[in-house]
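Q: Could you fold this chain for me?
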Amino acid sequence: MILSQAYMKKGFTLIEILMVVVILGISAMVAIPMLGSGASMQMRSAANKIAADIEYAKSMAISRQQNYTVNFDMSNNSYQIQDSSGMVISDPMKSSDDFDVNFDEIPSLSAVSISAIDFDGESSITFDYLGSPYAGSGSSTPLIDGSDGITISAGDMDFEIIVEPVTGYVSIQ
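A: Sure. Below is the predicted structure, expressed as structure tokens.
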């Protein structure tokens, strides 16, 4: 009987309250970064997508031993990948669709816009059978400037996707 009375006390102990506060604090630390701006998440996603698609064009050029070109169109906020004959290739994720990316048509990337394109003065980049980048479509002029790439923006943020001369290494800054 004495034992059952001890369990009938009502209220919370100090340790129980502290544990709840610690759990809430950890949850807040995890949740607050996820509540960041949607534009910044869209920017990161778009930059990663562009970089991956440029890398895809480069790998297609190497594996198929022919030139592949990524054409950017700032006025339509889009880009596409073409083979050496100038035909838009099929999207590997949706084989029935052409590889034509338009940020305005992708709801999760609609805040992103292509704000600058500069591949030695051209709006496209071509990769040869070695994966070396060239300025322009079907060009024989290798990239020479180390700051060639695309600038995307959303809100007050800008990201730059850079393609290195000679190697074609793609980086996001």
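A (continued): The chain has one domain: 38-172.
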